[in-house]
Amino acid sequence: MTARLDIHTHPVVAKAIKHLATAGTAMADSALPPATRELVLLRCSQINGCGMCVDMHTKEAARSGESSVRLHLVATWRDSTVFTEAERAALALAEEGTRIADAAGGVPDDVWENAVKHYDEDQLGALLVTITVINAFNRLNVITRQAGGAYVPGQLG
After folding, report:
1. The pTM is what?
2. Phi-psi bin for 154: left (phi > 0), alpha (psi -120 to 50), beta?
3. Where is the Carboxymuconolactone decarboxylase-like domain (predicted)?
């Protein structure tokens, strides 16, 4: 697969990426548990078919100590026993927020209420921004055909 555009050197896109990356970095410093953040980043990227982000977030999660079992089961989290109730609430919100166009009413109330049960206001805000930012990155990468496989853990800081 050949990329349609070099997103890192294109003057407009590269500038926008810096701003998106800054938002993502702010979420890394938030009260949202790092493991939850990585699981959400991975799940959104799987749904969107973003090979570059699946590659990156699988490797970064492993580098941070996440088990291979949990990483392999993210795609089937509903049918897995390795995730906490809080992680399940975050993954459900991530899925609904990513598939927002598929639901006429947006994110269902029960999904939102379950997330509110498990996360305080600061964590919930971080979760929402994490979902939003990764979806933007996923779309940029998928549209421009950025391939996965070459990411080296830590290469982006």
Report:
1. 0.93
2. left
3. 13-96
Q: Average pLDDT, whole number, for the chain? A: 93
Burial of 62 (0-12, 13-18, 19+ CB in 10 A): middle
Q: Which of 131, 126, 119 is nearest to 53 (CA)?
A: 131
Name the nearest CA neighbour of 94 among 59, 140, 64, 126. Answer: 126
On whether the 11-143 domain is CATH 2.60.40.730, my answer is no
| 130 has a pLDDT exceeding 80 | yes
Helical ranges in 49-157 per DSSP H: 51-63, 68-73, 85-98, 109-118, 121-143
| Residue 52: C-alpha distances to residues 19, 63, 87 (Å) | 19, 17, 23
Q: Where are the domains of the chain?
A: 11-143
Q: Which amino acid is at 3?
A: A
Query: Does the structure show a pLDDT above 80 at 133?
Result: yes
Higher pLDDT, residue 53 or 24: 53
**Are residues 5 and 144 in contact, defined by beta-carbon separation less than 8 angstroms?**
yes
